[in-house]
Amino acid sequence: MITYSRNVFIPLTHTCFNRCAYCGFRSDDITLMSLKDVEVLLGKARKATEALLTFGDSPARVGGFVRALDEQGYVSFVAYVRKACELAISYGLIPHTNAGVLKRRELKYLKPYNGSMGLMLETTADLPAHAKSPSKNPKKRLRVIRYAGSLRIPFTTGILVGIGESWDDRIESLSKIAELHERYGHIQEVIIQGFSPKKGTAMENHSCPPPTELLECVRIAREQLPEDVVVQIPPNLIPMEMLPEFIKAGASDVGGISEITPDYINPEAPWPSVSELRRVVGSVRERLCIHPKYILLGWYGKKVEHLVEELAGEDGLVAQSF
After folding, report:
1. Using CA atoms, how far apart are residues 14 and 35, in angstroms rounded to an integer?
2. pLDDT category, 322, cuts 50, 70, 90?
3. CA atoms of 1 and 23, how far apart (whole Å)
4. Which of 83, 90, 138, 202 is deepest in the core (most CB within 10 A)?
5. Which spans in 123-239 are helix H?
6. Max CA distance (Å), the chain
7. Rounded to whole angstroms, how far apart are CA atoms 100 and 181?
8. Contact 66, 94 (CB under 8 A)
9. In this structure, what are the phi and psi dihedrals at residue 285, rounded to the nearest 5 degrees?
10. Whole-angstrom distance, CA of residue 96 vs CA of residue 204
11. CB neighbours (10 Å) of residue 321?
């Protein structure tokens, strides 16, 4: 069975303390969406069930950002994020916050207002691409994933393929994720995402990994990870006609698809439609941002419980696709 979710992608801020050599999302400008602008997007997302909240890492460490928070009346960035989550819930959407490197108490503060949360590990290797990115330190990111496990937060993570890591690095990264899941049981999905060059970045002239390389990464991931961890492949970053091969290799989820917002991380790569997915792979099922196992376990935040009860069927998938 192949699953997907319907989301609205909300980029709360492009301000980021990191300067990854491949990232086209971050900005030198101080940006912070007003909650009125967030509400506009939420109001358009009538078919979505998930509010995907994404932002730069540790934005409050960038000069001028705290002032922007203060102007909107927030004492901290996590307080602002939680308010955005509350707003999403009021519109009938379940928040999934891509958390960045947060402290355990910050994750605990956000948990009740989220169905699930996430943080890409990317790699356990020390790479030149991350030389100016303090929070891409693998130990810091693994610590956040461990905190999420201790708090029973259904969690999404993944590896980024083609940023200078070796095959051994990829295997080690997947092994570390597997170890954390075996201890806490909270990793709902692992994304295998290929590097995509962006104009204006230090790596704009680097080649992206060929689809066959990503295919092999999916095979390895399926072998390395416990059976109850879903392997996800972003369908907008591979040739659609190869999707059946990725499924055969072990991928069983294609992540969130938005009908009203682009992939702000990879804006040059449009989402496929659900009808296109069905054309290529046949039957697909819609899920919430929380994978069925964790719905049945009741690990999601208490503030979204009424939405889960309304939207999920007995099998934990969306009861009726819109």
Report:
1. 15
2. very low
3. 33
4. 138
5. 138-150, 167-184, 211-224
6. 51
7. 19
8. no
9. -125, 140
10. 30
11. 13
Burial of 47 per CB tally in 10 Å (0-12, 13-18, 19+): middle
The whole model's pTM is what? 0.97
Tokens of 292: 């069925």
* Residue-wise pLDDT tens digits, 101-128: 999 999 999 999 999 999 999 999 999 9
If you average pLDDT over residues 236-253, what whole number do you get? 97
Q: Tokens representing 170? A: 């990829």
Structural domain boundaries in the chain: 2-311
Distances (CA, A) of 184 to 35, 51, 108, 145: 34, 25, 16, 10
Predicted confidence (pLDDT) per residue in 185-216, tens digit: 999 999 999 999 999 999 999 999 999 999 99
The partner residues of 155 in beta bridges, in order of sequence, read 117, 187
Arithmetic mean of pLDDT over the chain: 96
What type of residue sits at position 248?
Answer: K
3-state secondary structure of 48: coil
Q: How far apart are CA 305 and CA 295, in angstroms?
A: 9
Place of tokens 């730069």: 56
What kind of fold does domain 2-311 have according to CATH?
Answer: TIM Barrel (3.20.20)
Encoding tokens for residue 261? Answer: 């917002």
In angstroms, rounded to a whole number, what is the distance separating the alpha carbons of residues 92 and 311? 10
